[in-house]
Amino acid sequence: MTWTAVARKDFQDAIRSRWVAGLSTLFVLLVSAAAYLVRPAPGETISSNAVLNSLVVRDALVTTLVPLLALVVAYKAVVGERESGSLKLLLSLPHSRADVVFGKVAGRAAAIAAPISVGFLLPAVVLLVAPPVNFDVVSYVGYTLLTAILGVAFVAIAVGFSAAASSSRRAVAGAIGIYFLFVPLWGAVRFPLQLYLGMGGGPSWLPLTGQQVLRMLRLINPTGSFKIVSNAFLEGSLYTGGQVNMQVSATLMLVLWILVPPLLGLLWFREADL
């Protein structure tokens, strides 16, 4: 299984990137600042789960910065080596094209998981020394792992696109397009659509209700599926509450985002002329 050798080398290359170091540092500082600033009213206490599930941490930071960091880590994973000529050398060794694609997914996934894990260490210290906060270690570690899975999903999307792209310029354009589609534009489109469908709008030929369309749009976006799973986890109702079907669907959608883009990218990459 030579993909492990590709993954090991790719991880080492990725973590040396100045962009990765800079964005990781920014992530650490912003999450730490948010953990410090989200304070309860005088005389009250707040849980670490409430801090993690706040709009500041979840929406303004995690689902905004983690996709960006993942795309920066992975958008040149394949096409960068293709343009430099090192991909020919890599494939001259006992590596198949599948080894290259999935090895790079694994290597870049580890490269994104590392700064995310480190990124939540300092906020944990802030929460521990900034009473009154009830710190839940298990939930905090679990949320960190879920955040890493969100990053892995965007790494898989970027590596798949990088494998299919014929130039770095197209890979950059694809990464920018993916980010704007799933982060700022999705919410900008979903909000007026929610108002429209909530007032009974929508084509009569569509075999779905307005609420079903909105749920589908929420699930398709990796950040939307992440929010569904992470919210339920922090509330202690993951796979046990009244929204089990939605939570299972969101989990499966994250798995699909991790598996399908690299497979599609590999289909293009198999036929690519190096």
UniProtKB/TrEMBL annotation:
Source organism superkingdom: Archaea
Signal peptide: none
GO molecular function: ABC-type transporter activity
Pfam families membership: ABC2_membrane_2
UniProtKB keywords: Membrane, Transmembrane, Transmembrane helix
Assigned GO CC terms: plasma membrane
Residue ranges crossing the lipid bilayer per the database entry: 20-38, 60-79, 105-128, 140-164, 171-189, 248-269
Protein name listed in UniProt: ABC transporter
Organism: Haloplanus rallus
